[in-house]
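## retry 2 of 3
previous attempt timed out at serialization; input unchanged, resubmitting
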Amino acid sequence: MTKAKVWLVRAILLLWSVQLIWLAWYFAPEVKELAQSVADRRLGEEVRREDPYYRWLQSLAGLIPSGATYIFLDDYEAGKEIIARYHLIPRKHVLLSPNVPPIFLFYKVRQEKAAFVIIRDKERPPGPGLSAALGSPAFQPLDVPGPGLVLQVDYLKVRGEFYD
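## retry succeeded, writing output
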């Protein structure tokens, strides 16, 4: 090996070791907590507990009875609906678009005998169906802290059929 190649290999090894030292210094505060989580085999649980959406779904799982039906207003593309369905099993799940027309939302509530309407993102402007639901006495908002909105529904108070 020539002197230039030896010098190049040493420079690369030096830069690599400096990078490792910097990473060890940067992540030092989390290392103890991470080691404890790995030793207790609760690493995945810790990550999920940090997610506000997960905590919100856990509170919904305690709130919604296991035999109830809920309507989830969300865009399928977001992927959050699948996570909600997983955490809220065995409850019956109906997915509708956030921009569902009021007539169709009310029809599905009556047809499915839905007890709850769940909106994933309460910061998003309400669609026409949700706006009508918020103005109806059959839909009562519940105070569940989290990223979404939960409405308890008395489907017997919902009037009208699909073609009204």
